[in-house]
Amino acid sequence: MTGLEKILSQIEYESNDRCRELTDKANDKAKSIVDDAEKQAEKIKKDSADAVERKLEASRQAAESSAQLAASREILKAKLDIIDGTLERSLEVIKALPKKEYFEILKELILKNARKGEGILHLSKADTDKLPVNFVDSVNNAFKRGYKIALGDSADIDSGFILVYGDIDINCSFDAIAAEKRDELRDALNGLLFD
Fold it and tell me: What is the pLDDT of residues 24-66, one digit of tens each?
């Protein structure tokens, strides 16, 4: 299991754990709202039995709907916050990796995202400054026939890289990858909640 897979597995574990906690909290809050609504309804019932029956049912349904909607909103917001926070922490972990491990992750990403032909690799200024001497040769040796990269100028990114093939730019900055994964996780979450 690669470092990135371990991080994604940790993200999933933390997300699921936090979501269960938030779901329990939201359910408790919803129960409290329903309990309060039922107490209010009992007081009204003493004053007028027929009118109260209609009001009780309407009030109960409205309270349940309102509580369910509020709980769903809170859970969704919390899940999105968890996804965002976990991805941010993951980026921090990746950036703090020892040099060897960090550049192994970059190498894997380059091999995964390269296209046939010769591309230009643009690293961040910080990554360019600490680039291992034989890194580009190591990547080129790992490519299949017909694939090659050359090191270009530093890109205006925080970390990761941009591969350029003529008019085509492949943005593999860690911020871009995190944004893509954030959207994928949010789409999956929406599918779970609204299907």
Answer: 776 777 677 777 767 876 776 676 667 657 777 888 888 888 8
The larger pLDDT score, comparing residue 4 to residue 60, is at 60
What does the DSSP 8-state code read for residue 144?
A: P
C-alpha span between 58 and 40 (Å, rounded) = 13
With 70 as the cut, is the pLDDT of residue 120 above it?
yes
Residue 101 to residue 3: CA distance in whole angstroms: 8
DSSP 59-73: HHHHHHHHHHHHHHH
CA–CA distance, 112 with 110 (Å, rounded to integer) = 5
User: How many CB atoms neighbour CB 100 within 10 A?
Assistant: 8
CB distance 98 to 129 below 8 Å: no
Q: What is the mean pLDDT of residues 103-111?
A: 93
The residue extents of the domains of the chain are 3-96, 115-178
Which two three-digit tokens encode residue 98?
């020892």
- 121 CB-contact burial (10 Å; exposed 0-12 / middle 13-18 / buried 19+): buried
pTM over 0.85: no
User: Which parts of 33-143 are beta strand (E)?
Assistant: 117-123
- Tell me the C-alpha distance between 158 and 125, whole Å: 8
